[in-house]
Amino acid sequence: MSVKEELQKIHNRLDRCKHRLAAAQKRDDQPVVKQFLHEIQTLEKKLTKLKGKQQFETGNKGTEVRNLAFNRAITKAEQADMGKLKKSVRGLVVVHPMTALGKELGLKEMTGYAPQAF
């Protein structure tokens, strides 16, 4: 399971626990409230750990991409026929500014990274 899927799964469990906690507090059921508070605390710790892992992986990927020898913005014509571009340039990595990697690199436009000029 990927980190992203695991994060989503934990978010869903956390949301469910919070709703059940609210219901238990309305009923004034203290043992159940304690149980859900403990479970929420555990899930939040897991969530923090996974977000750190995801950020670490994104940072590593960003470092790999930055270390490629050549980069330039991708033109609209090249964006229209991305398959042709990727076939013609060996080892090309295209990064969109709206992805996590693009945000980490601080991109303003779609950029291609490759080991040699293209």
What does this structure look like?
It is a single chain. The protein has 118 residues and is mainly alpha-helical. The protein folds into two domains: 65 residues; 51 residues, Ribosomal Protein S8, Chain: A, domain 1 (2-Layer Sandwich). It is 68% helix and 9% strand. It contains five helices and three strands; from the N terminus they run ααβααβαβ. The chain is elongated. The model has no long low-confidence stretch (mean pLDDT 93).
SSE layout and pairings?
Blueprint: H1 3-27, H2 30-66, E1 70-73, H3 76-80, H4 82-88, E2 93-95, H5 100-105, E3 111-114
Antiparallel strand pairs: 1-3, 2-3
Give me the side-by-side strand order of the main sheet: 1-3-2
Overall average residue pLDDT: 93
Reported for the largest beta sheet, the result is: 3 strands, antiparallel
The DSSP helix count reads 5
Strand content: 5-15%
**Morphology:** elongated
Distance between the termini: 36 Å
The figure for the number of domains is 2
Q: Calculate Rg over CA atoms.
A: 22 Å
The total strand number stands at 3
**Low-confidence parts lasting 5 or more residues at pLDDT below 50?**
none
Structural class, from secondary structure content?
mainly alpha
Query: N-to-C SSE series?
Result: HHEHHEHE
Helical residues, percent: 55-70%
Keywords: Coiled coil
Protein name: Conserved protein
Coiled coil: 7-53
Pfam family, one: DUF2810
